[in-house]
Predict the 3D structure of the following.
Amino acid sequence: MHIIEHFVNGQNFSGDSKRRSKVFNPATGEQSAEVKLASTKDIDIAVETSKTAFLPWSNKTPLHRARVMFKFKEIIEKNLEELTKIIVSEHGKVFDDAKGEIIRGLEVVEFACGIPQLLKGEFTENVGTDVDSWSLRQPLGVCAGITPFNFPAMVPMWMFPVAIACGNTFILKPSEKDPSCAIRLAELLLEAGLPEGVFNVVNGDKEAVDAIINNKDISAVSFVGSTPIAKYIYENCAKNEKRAQALGGAKNHAVIMPDCDLDQAVNGLMGAAYGSAGERCMAQSVAVVVGGIGDKLVESLAKKVESLKVGSGMDKKSEMGPLVTKEHLEKVKNYVDIGTKEGAKLIVDGRNLKLQGYENGYYMGGCLFDHVKKDMRIYKEEIFGPVLSVVRAKNFEEALLLINEHEFGNGVAIFTRDGDSARTFANKVQVGMVGVNIPIPVPMAFHSFGGWKRSLFGGQHMHGPEGVRFYTKLKTITSRWPSGLRSDPEFVMPTMK
């Protein structure tokens, strides 16, 4: 059995812990590897390695660090097919979707290539008589990222390129469900010229997470995952005096207005709800239909959901692959059971899908509910699977109120031809990322990604300008060079004259 180890100080690291977790191929249900789970001691060793690497790396010029990022970008592009296959083999998403997530991660590497410009501070000459003042941003030290199974390349690449380019060292704890991509990224960073110890990968579970939170030498933690864990990480990082950006769960709505392009809305919902088997924090899992368009929308959706091509991620004809684990598959099916018991109308039932030759894979077809109510669990809770709920709203105001009252505020969309509706919606909706006729409004790397309410704990979003601010600390210097005799001491609050 293949054993996946940690990657510390530029090489494989066995670690102290004897604990392991199984890694499966979701398409076949067969075990492909075992991954070592780190102990607190293993995390501490990685932190010491990162501390040792920090000073020489932070003293490198921003231009030097940018050139490493440029080289890393080139190497990622050369190894794109290999990385894509690694993701498909452990996560299960279809090939083009896996390739797409790497490209979205690569956009952050491209953004980090501009770090010399991004780290420039501000300067005010003569802020007071013969006094100048300027600000600059300096790296924090050792940073850590705790990332989810659903984007084994993209989400880590939303974190470490910016952190490293800012002069920090970084410890990544990927999901133990699909850890191989993180190890390969570490190897490619080394090939790009990153010094040993600047980027380390330590696999693990809750013990590793708690060790990261409690280690006093880690200055900042980035997290993406469920809301309960995000809240746990944010609160405990605060207790340990470290900054945190903790992105939590989502229940993303798409408002379908009566005047919309119906075909565009249906196609947008299909990709956003069922792409990657719904295992995205930006998946559209609720369609709020306004007025009398509901029946037409559901009829069109049902036909497409029933004809959804489900299969192995390596099959180029597949539109949706398996779910990540057997346990998660059963969890999603259980939510469908709950929805039917709650009284929602199950229009398309994908629970009993069986694929010839893949009988042990973690597959289910797309599910479509209609007449879902706001007090139902399938409406309130994040399912994280290929289940779309249709909610009926009488008017625009009711649809907007539904979204604003929900505990999550990650992403949202509106489909309409009316500019006034779109502008009012974008202005009034209490959600961090808004799409107008765009079903998955993920910002480009030179903007920043993050939700509102219980979808984000912490004051700063991820990557982009917010990422630079998160991974640096601000220093402001005020300077005067007196001539002649020294001035007399001043015992009052200084003011600029």
